[in-house]
Structures are given as C-alpha cells and as structure tokens.
C-alpha cells in the first residue's frame, strides 16, 4: 500500500493499546481446523465448535435495540422487508440503470425516492462530515465506524487523482473524531490505480508464479500472493512486460497509496484494503503486502488486507502470508469476509473451461470462514497483528465470540474487531457490542449519483444476504411489538 515509519509514541497511544485482560471462560476448549499445505507447519488450532456464549444474548430485544429510536427501527424494518423481495430489487436495479434516470423531473423523483429509502438506510451520507455525525451517533450506541468513500473503479489517472483526494478527506474527517469512534479508513485500490493496469499487473504476477525465472523489475519485496491451489486460468499466455507509460502509472498509484498510508500512520488510524474479484486481486494483494512490509512496525498493523473465504484457496493463502510475515517480524492485519463476487467468478471460470474458484457449498464457505477466524484469533491473542471478523452470519459470530472469550480477548484488546455493513445485521452488531467486543459498521458515503454504482453492486452481490435478513426482521418486529404494547398498556 505505501511507506511510512510509525513512531513508538504513536504505538503507545490508547487507541491501539494491545494489553489484554484474560476473561473468565465458561466454554469448553475449541480446537481449530485449518488444513495447511504440506509445506507449512501445522497451525496451533483447527475448528470452532459450537458453544453457548452467555454474553451474546439475542433474547432480550429491549436491551438489544435500546439505542435505536422507534422511528429508525420502523424504517429499518420496512427497508429490510422491501430488500427481501427479489422482484422489487430487480425492478429497482433495472430502473436505476435505465434511460429513465436521464429524463428531467423523473430523474429528481427517482433519486429523491432512493435517497429517502435505501440510500439513507445503507449509506452514511453525501459527504464525509455528514458521515462523521452518523459515526458519532453510532458511538453513543457503543459501536464504531469504518468510513468508506463510495467510489467504484477508476479508468484513468484523472479519476484516480479525484478519488485519491476523496480518500485524503476521509482520513482528515476520521482523525477529527474521538479516537474511540473510528476503527478503520477503507481504501479501494481499484479507485486509485487504473483497472487496466491492475489487470496487467495481475497477469504478470500470475505468470511469475508459474515461472519464477520471469523477471518483474518493478516488483518490491512482498508476502506470498498465491498458493499451490490458487487459480491461474486468467493468464493463459505469457504477458508482455509493462510499458514505460504503465510503469509511470504504477509509480503514480504507489505514490497515492504511500501518502494515504503515511497520513493514516500520522493519525494512528489503520488503513484497510478492500478485496475485489480474482482478475485483479493479485495486484491488490501486491499493493497491500509490499506496503505492509514497509509500514507495519513493532506490534501493530496499520495496513490491513482482506481475505475472501468463499475462495477455495483462502485458507492456504492466509497461512502462507501469516507465516511469511512472522518470519520477517512484520505484524499483519486481515479482514476476513465470505466474499461478494460469486456469480461473476463462476461465470468467468466456466467461460474459460475451469471449475469455479468458489467453494462448492455454502457449508464449505462457512467452515472456511470459521476456521480462518479461529486461526487469526489465536495469532493475535498470542502475538502482534490484528483481525477484523466481517460477518453477518449469527452462528459465525457466536463461534468467534466463544473462541475469543476462551482466549481472553475482549473489549480491552483492540486487535480484534467485528464488523457488519451499515444497515445490516443490527441485532448481531448490538449483541456482540453488549457482550464486550469492539464492533464497527462499514459506512459508505458520497453523493447519491456517485454511490449509485456501489448500491447497485451491493444489491446484486448481497441478494442472498438481503433475502436472508429474517433474523433481524424477526427481532425488530418483536421489539416494535413490545414498544407498542408498552405504549398502549
């Protein structure tokens, strides 16, 4: 991601105090389940077994939603019910992509409707200061925020520069907030480096993995990007080296990323790099890992990467990267997610005559996420680095909470963060927070027109998640019924 040195005085800052206070565990020991590559030492644990966690309570809905106003609860329930109706989501997506949004008058009506409903529910506002005020509201409820400048892929350097300035403003706003209220600033490498260059870099990195003698003059020190099981079908022929113009564009992109990392280091706010689809992910990992080597110092990780655990090679890549980081004495941070490109990844693989890189079943994905969570929790409990467990799955939340309690990791250890999308899985967020964990909401912001592509992509990628939001809707209905009954009687 970039370069910078972290002064020791910053590392002693309260925000990232890594002192841990063992918590009394009432759970039986949990054993992990990572299946390491034969060339790697076995991990110290393997599978997260289901275990009751008394502190993770979803039964007391009054306590669960105590910080949510009734009007906000009503709107949330209504929006979640609407997004669970797939034909409605399909119609909305079609409408926003149609030429009707270019018709004067109708355009304003469509955008006003979107702004008052889905946009206000899933986004944090049209600019960073507005998003900051929402973060402060969240903080009063015991949650934190991850500010996300809601831009999509950049096609040229002009777009990259505009997006870069937006990310810089995001850091400025984040550093102006109370230290306890902001956990991360999110960056999309696809927004500060042209997509065509990321595709070219990924091809070159894949070919070098096939042929280690293949020279990449621009490549800096980096952790392993691929495992033996990583898909390489995107690059079918030997790619040409980067042109002088592409090397200049790469240097510009690295400079943008360097400045973002330096500013985050000065603000003592870690920078989390979002994952993308596999055609460009190798280049994104290269930005992340080469920058982590330079920027992550002592016991704290400033640069975080993302592992999408719906990929079959996720566990092996995680093990390889963590092992390499440990050997180099570099603290590494990861956000663990399930993933968001299942349909497009499967279609691309099939078009090239290969099996999908995505796990064959949802249960395999759950097992992979839970195993990676257990592994990273043990790593950060006993050493440097950090982990963000980004999940909307209640069972995964319970399992990780039980594992963290067993290891003595609670609110006093800021190396562990749970996270959910803004407007999603409110019950899980508040339940984990009430149980004593740091919990953040992923909060995209930007003008409706700018964030529209983000909203459309979220609607399509999270179709199953939106339709499966029944747990939240059920608890919201229960709490609304309780409040109505209390008001009447």
UniProtKB/TrEMBL annotation:
- Outline the segment boundaries, as ranges, of region: Disordered: 22-44
Which ranges does the record mark as transmembrane?
Answer: none
Please note every region of biased composition (Low complexity): 22-37
The catalysed reaction is: L-proline + a quinone = (S)-1-pyrroline-5-carboxylate + a quinol + H(+)
Instruction: Please give the superkingdom of this protein's source.
Output: Eukaryota
Quick check: keyword Oxidoreductase in the entry? yes
EC top class, as a word: oxidoreductase
Q: What is its EC number?
A: 1.5.5.2
Q: Which residues form the Proline dehydrogenase domain?
A: 133-464
List, in alphabetical order, the GO biological process terms annotated in this UniProt record: L-proline catabolic process to L-glutamate
Q: Which SUPFAM superfamilies does the protein's record reference?
A: FAD-linked oxidoreductase (SSF51730)
Which protein family is it in?
Answer: Belongs to the proline oxidase family.
Q: Please describe what this protein does.
A: Converts proline to delta-1-pyrroline-5-carboxylate.
Q: What PANTHER family has UniProt attached to this entry?
A: PROLINE DEHYDROGENASE, PROLINE OXIDASE
- Full protein name: Proline dehydrogenase
